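ERR on first pass: missing label on line 2. Operator R.T. fixed the label and resubmitted. Corrected input:
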Amino acid sequence: MSALVQLTGVSKTFGDAAAVHSIDLSVERGKTTVLIGPSGCGKSTLLRLIIGLLQPDEGKIEFDGTSLSAGNIDIIRRRVGYVIQEGGLFPHLTARGNILLMPRHLGSDENEMLSRLAELCALTRFPANLLGRYPLELSGGQRQRVSLMRALMLSPELLLLDEPLGALDPLGRVALQKDLKEIFERLKQTALLVTHDLAEAAYLGNQIVLMNQGRIVQKGSIVDLREQPASTFVSDFINAQRGLMLT
Amino acid sequence: MTTFRFLSISYCVLGFLIQSPALATEPTVIGSKKFTESYVLGEIAKRTLTEAGISADHRQGMGGTIILWQALRSGQIDVYPEYTGTIVQEILKRSNPMPTDQVADELRKIGIGTTKPLGFNNTYALVMRRNRASALGIRTISDLQKHPELKLGFTHEFLDRQDGWSPMAVAYRLNSQNVAGIDHALGYDALRNGQIDVKDAYSTDAKIADYNLVVLEDDQKFFPRYDAVFLNRLSLNDKAVAVLRGLEGRIDEATMTRLNAEAERTKDYARAASLFFDSSGTSTPSFGESFAHKLSRWTSRHLELAGFSLLLSIIVGVPLGIWASRGGPIGHVILGFASVVQTIPSLALLALLVPLPFFGISVRTAITALFLYGLLPIVRNTATGLQDIPRGLRESAIALGISSRARLWQIYLPMASRSILAGIKTSAVINIGTATLAALIGAGGLGEPILSGLNLNDHATILQGAIPAATLALLVQWFFDFLDRVLIPKGLRL
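pass 2 clean. output:
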């Protein structure tokens, strides 16, 4: 089975986004791929290229065998869920309003929407009685769960998560990490997640992609990275995080 | 959905604010200049026409000579009182006096008719306090040569006229250094209080007797005759012209001075005009409007001016703001234009619009000026409201794959709604204040009593306009605070 997303020789250099150079990457179906690396290494830029917020200077991005273009990008976006660090919830809409925004726009059946919503509340462990609240009335963890529900509402083939747990306190973070892993497994969800936390990457990822200065340094499992580091940067990166955990 | 509700409620509200102007059959429109005698003559013409069965409207105190003349030429008014000296010097631009018949011929060539003189000569004159003049031994204008230290306060029109201060100073070889421009009515107070020593006056001004002033003799015969006449458009119907002709030679100087005094005493021009019709010599209070009725007329016109212009500002300003929010050269041009408009003084903006075709002395001009003024706060707040949406939210919206139209209406505009509404509120409050200036070009509103109060130097009349205008501005402020609670999505108010 071919990869769901295929990046071939993708480069992007410009102003405020961290540049990326000649990236080749496959996002395998049903698996969780984790992009990891220091700040500014270009991992978020890759996500924004895949969802069409940025256009590559060079190279090709294919989604399910189709090249991204201005003509098909909105159709492809509807097959992809996108969750950012701060949740990206629209403050003028309630949790429910945020989640149902897109299906309503597409004219989905109201009953179907509501049963899907109930299903998602159970899946993400979000109390249904809070659906009428506005984003500012929810905790950080609750907001991320709502954001996840919004992303999952249309049963996307791909889920893109840009440091989804980055703004949470340690307890909330651990709880949501567990839930995410369970959700991905349950849904056999293809996911591409960005983090800078090695433990999180090891826990959630089937494949880990380590980046530095806009290039992919090594791909593989956490064991591959630990035992067969491709360069001193890889071992330094792993040791730095391990050292932190010991202190 | 929320946006739709926001817009539909705001449009309903605006619709409520704006009452459609009543359509009337075309009455004869009389204009008058911004001083007592002109108002009274306008009222006399109105009553004379009305009594002859011709419906007539009087637009009081529209401005100075040029504005009235332009209004007559362009058909915004049909009739106004003018003076022969002014016609020759200011309108026909001749430096030498002309016989009355020749004046009438010249005017006819440009489509304007004139009555024969109404019977009094209201010439320009220079006046001083009687005791000051006698103390300095000043009797004639020539005597001023010996006193260059005196403070002279002249109306702005007199300062500029061809038969005004500059040529007069040449003719009399006056070299006064202290010359200032001051409003006609305020100038009388300044003269009485000793802030100025000499001012220009009209020889039939009631204040000359009231304040015990003395008229300096025009010993060089500098001032031409200023016989009052009515000017009319040649297109005015024959019956109305005949009725106005009936006033020829019927108002002498003593009568006019008495009518002016009555107008200034009672603050009621129609009542003063009634003295002319009533031979017994007692004026009848004008049967016209009660104060409540006038107040509601001023206020509804005021709201009409401010409301219509605000609606236009919203309809044009919000889309321009959306456009400007995208930045680039077009965005800069839009914001730049709106800012430049705002820097033009409001009075100057009105004056700039008046000579343009389509505008002139009209409600249309006032609404256009107010509309242009209201633009900047709305454009700027719409643009910044949209630009202030954090990048993460903007990108989350795009990543949804929602159409750009829905993105704007359902996500961006509601998120910017608070800023947009604040801009609309600023425009509304500015418009309520600025709309008082509309009275200067005869567009009515609460500026009307303010203007005539200034003209009569009567504080009570000024307050009749100023208090309701200030109250209105406060009410508008509260109304928008209420709208903020109703229209702004709750999630943004947390």
